[in-house]
Amino acid sequence: MTIEEKQQEIISEFSIFEDWMDKYAQLIEMGNELPPMSEDKKTEQTIIRGCQSQVWIDADFNNGVITFEGDSDALIVKGLVALMLRVVNNQTPEAIMNTDFHFVDKIGLKEHLSPTRSNGLLAMIKQIKLYAVAFNKIANS
Fold first, then answer.
1. 51 catalytic, yes or no?
2. pLDDT digit string (tens) for 106-141?
């Protein structure tokens, strides 16, 4: 499934909820379903700066695609991690680098997240794109 298809799927899923409390509940559920990240990967190198909560994202590059792992110590933020990783997991570096994460606006995250969570989400996106740039250089060297 392409990044665009995944984004459209998320937009459809969130469109059934009229109330933001239901959307938050969906995010928390997604976070609860996120596979656990091993403690040895929760390092200074994988922590996301700019998040009020603790957030870790790690990535591996194999067979031309990037696989991500992530975690957070906050329920809603862990759901945001799960949402982001769902979009970018098993995609090429180039596809991730060229992605406009428009689903964030379409499902209303920007206006319904606190400023600190919104900044944290932007920091996650930035780190994911940095991983993509680094792995793209490896792929093309």
1. yes
2. 998 878 888 888 888 999 999 999 999 999 998 888
